Amino acid sequence: MTGKIPKQTCSAWEGLPEALTEKLLRLRGLILDIASADPDIGPLEETLKWGQPAFLTSDSGSGTTVRIHRHKQSTETYALYVHCQTDLIERYQQLYSETLTFDGKRAVVFDVNDELPVDAVRHCIAMALTYHLRNAR
User: Fold this and answer.
1) Residue 78: which of 133, 21, 10, 123 has the closest Cα?
2) pTM across the whole model
3) Which of 48, 68, 83, 131 could form an S-S bond across to 63 if both were Cys, CB 3.0 to 4.6 Å?
């Protein structure tokens, strides 16, 4: 389920190379699929934060914001961003240090020319969208 792409998301990606946009659309689809499959997450609010498409668990409050966009103005890399004051990147590194590439405490970075490691990325997205439930359970 990818859903209709909001105008603000389209405008954020305007002018990006087609290959990069396709990769971002794939990440967006994973995010929406994961949320729709988990009733604890519920519907997401898709908006812009810092000029980047952002996905919020506004209704359920289950998770932290996930953002997706190109990485550092690159036309070759893109990223999945999470809040830097969470321990998510540290947890991702513990699980997927041999599979994923990281930038600080904020981002998982992908190369547009590489295949997306879907299983690892799906798990990382689910962890972010259920971040606040971890302590509540």
Assistant:
1) 21
2) 0.93
3) 131
